[in-house]
Amino acid sequence: MKIAIVYNRPAETGSENWQSSQDVLRQVEAVEQAMGELGIPHLALAFDRDLGKFLDGVRREKVDAIFNLCESVDEDARLAGHPAAVFELAGLPFTGSGSLALMLTTDKLLSKHQLKAAGLLTPDYLSYGGEDPATLSDLTLPAIIKPRFEDASIGIDQESVVRSRQELFEKLPVFYHQYGPLLVEQFIAGREFNISLFGYPAPRVLPPAEIDFSTFPRELHRIVGYRAKWDENAFEYHNTNRFFPANLPPDMASELRRVAAAVFDLFLLRDYGRIDVRMDEQGRIHVLEANANPCLSPDAGFVAAAEQDGMNYTDIVSGFVTFLSARSQP
Ligand SMILES: Nc1ncnc2c1ncn2[C@@H]1O[C@H](COP(=O)(O)OP(=O)(O)O)[C@@H](O)[C@H]1O
Ligand SMILES: [Mg+2]
Fold first, then answer.
1. Which one of 276, 279, 285, 291 would you pick to mutate in the ligand 1 pocket, going by the greatest count of ligand atoms within 8 A of its CB?
2. What letter would DSSP give residue 79?
3. Strands, E, within 48-169: which ranges?
């Protein structure tokens, strides 16, 4: 089986959010290396709006299956699911979630509607599409403003957290101008966990990871914003380490696993996923978001959870190839 590692052509260094965009190249490199070790014939193919060129490449190289690392198309996060739709149309087996799951989870507002309808807890919210903020209904504050369609904490940092209605009203038009449609979510102040899952046809829940905010000074909101994820010079980058809590109370551990597995099923995720949650003062788990096809960089949360479960990077890639083979059977 010859596998094409397909990735979105990233933004140039220095352009907006280039760090998160170029991270895909580290994933390509890591997957290529693992495939080399596994002796799997492979090549890397960039994906952009030039579909003709992409499909020519697939034909010319006699590609049998795709390792899908596309996180957007031409920097548009709303198109995160569209490469998968092309693979589906072309009849090419590919790793990770199908287009529907990717599209559903890219829209944080639709995701919340679905979570609520399924009886899963998610923070209360408002959606904002550029109207007069004074017409919005009430929401318990503090709240956090998030872009409806972004990922990787793009558009989320300390200034996203608002404590008063006046602050919210002032900021909404500014954020809207920069990021388009927004969500305003009730701020859940408690512990943050990321739960990864891996496996096909049924996923296994990997050990839950928690974010360590213990070194945050009181005046900083405990969030994993853009600086925490991507700016090596920022305080938050060095003070939001993930760890795998050894002594979670059994009830809490099983609730985290239950919620993560339910979210994986709800959004039709396939092969792998990472669910971000936070706990409120009553110990209830609120789902922040489902990440279909989470980042596969060697230092990313999904990879750390798989390693915690005893796999190395090559084992992970080998797992994906096994899932692919299971789906390519006639
Ligand atoms: N309702 C919320 N309450 C508290 N913190 C939040 C909330 N929503 C988001 N955050 C913080 O912002 C981070 C990024 O938000 P998330 O919804 O996971 O979007 P992204 O897709 O950008 O990762 C979270 O990891 C968390 O630290
Ligand atoms: Mg997240």
1. 276
2. G
3. 65-68, 125-128, 143-147, 161-162
Check pLDDT > 60 for residue 26.
yes
Ligand nearest to the CA of 228: 1
> What tens digit of pLDDT does each residue of 136-169 get?
989 999 999 999 998 888 889 999 999 999 999 9
Domain that holds residue 165: 122-186
Q: Could you list which residues have their CB under 5 Å from ion ligand 2?
A: 276
Do residues 181 and 198 share a domain?
A: no
Residue nearest to atom 15 of ligand 1 (CA): 153
Sequence-distant (6+) residues with CB within 8 A of 14 are none
Distance 192 CA to ligand 1 centre (A): 9
Count of domains for the chain? 3
Q: Whose CA is nearest to atom 25 of ligand 1?
A: 224
Those residues whose C-beta lies under 8 Å from the C-beta of residue 151, and which sit 6 or more positions away, are 71, 77, 80, 106, 291
Q: Do 300 and 216 fall within a single domain?
A: yes
Confidence of residue 81 (pLDDT cuts 50, 70, 90): very high
DSSP code for 264: H
Using a pLDDT cut of 70, give the percent of the chain over it.
99
Name every protein residue with a CB atom under 6 angstroms from any ligand 1 atom: 123, 144, 146, 150-153, 156, 185, 187-188, 192, 223-224, 276, 278, 288-289
pLDDT at 330: 57
Closest alpha carbon to 156 in 102, 217, 231: 231
d(CA 8, CA 167): 37
**Counting atoms of ligand 1 from 1, which one is nearest the CA of 222?**
27
